[in-house]
Amino acid sequence: MAEADHKAKDIDGKITDEDIARARAQIGIPQVRHTPTFNRVAGADTMRHFAFGLVGDDNPLWHDENYARGTRWRALIGHPMYVMTLGQNETPRYSEEHKKLFRGLFRGVGKYLVSTRWTFYRPIYEGDVVYEEYTTSAIEEKQSKFAGGRSVIDSYQALLADRAGLPIALREHSLVNAERRGSKEAGKYKDHSRYTYSDEELADIDAHYQREERRGATERFWEDVEVGEALTPVAKGPLTMVDLICRHVATGMADGYNIGPMRFGWKARNRMPAFYTPDDWNVPQVAQRVHWDERRAQDLGLPTGYDYAICRFAWLSHLVTNWIGDDGWLWKFEVELRQFNFLGDFQLCVGEVAGKRIEDGHPLVDLALRAINQRGETTTFGNATVILPSRKDGPVVLPTAPAEMRARSARLVVQGAKWQVRA
């Protein structure tokens, strides 16, 4: 019985030197994405679903075509991070040599998304098609306080371009690979328990939701911004199962693994059996269940399930887009997670103006961002650079991507078209 239980937990995967060497050899090689993009074409409904499900943002700029037509964008646009649900990857099948590099790295090891960095160049409109080039950009080995031992940080870059070969956005993100038994034995969260709120605390959370302020159609001019100015906080939580379900409404279930329900699940289990492990009743379950399955989370030394990293990435962006209004542009955005956000936890997204300047003719404002939980702990740090309209120079002029990125985007689209013809 003990042996069967131990097998069910499946927490003994190890990080090997061979895995690290293969991961480093992948750097710069365009990767095949075996899972179709969640949205092949940008659509009004999927734009709304994204803002609703992941961001929890009722801004009419993402939801109401009639409202959006009256803004400077002249039509409904997607939330800045909506582009992550797009991106057709046309990289051809690997050569025999590359197949060996990309086969089954870090199996049985926990993988946690910990940071993101975005640069946005243009909005997404209904009908847009996006193409993606996805590469490993860095591999770093280090000791992990959470895992109590060896870990590897792998970083990736996704270049997203439109049909004309012009850059839309650049996404860079990093994940920590940590040995699961090490995280359990390190016991960082062994004394952590679900938080019980008083009626007064819940009333205070409700008051934050009530006080949320969206700039909307009222222009925020660069000249009027003062360094040190606080952004009106945005409340998120307490985190519930509904929030996790809605995250998948926004972005789908696949997450690069092409999992799904019923027959889709059966096909996925046959294609990648290592991604599934048996639960306490010997039912094969996806690795992602750690987010909602308390038993599985506890196998890994965690008290309960937790959010997806992209939730807090999106929540801090909500703070920014509320502040800049319809006429501003979120240009650069980065977020780093420092602690888990467990089921039942509350996050208050706060920020302030850290600086302002004119650069290449763009009136820029730098924002310092944080998310603070109900225990007063800062779980998340972020920064943003936004472009605001100017009383002197007029409306926002969208930024231009560097020449090297424009050339990469053009090659990406042209090569993809040739690969499709050959296929």
Q: Judging from the principal axes of the Cα atoms, what is the shape?
A: globular
Oligomer: single chain
Our Rg estimate from Cα atoms comes to 22 Å
How many domains make up the 3D coordinates?
1
Estimated share of beta-strand residues: 25-35%
Tell me about the biggest sheet? 9 strands, antiparallel
Which class do the helix and strand fractions yield? Answer: alpha+beta
If classified by CATH, what would the architecture be? Roll
Helix content: 25-40%
Number of helices: 13
CATH class: Alpha Beta
CATH topology: Thiol Ester Dehydrase, Chain A
Number of strands: 11
Mean pLDDT: 91
- SSE order, as H and E? HHHHHHEEEEHHEHHEEHHEEEEH
- Unreliable spans are 1-8
- By CATH, the superfamily comes out as Hotdog Thioesterase
Strand order of the main beta sheet, please? Answer: 2-3-4-1-8-11-10-9-5
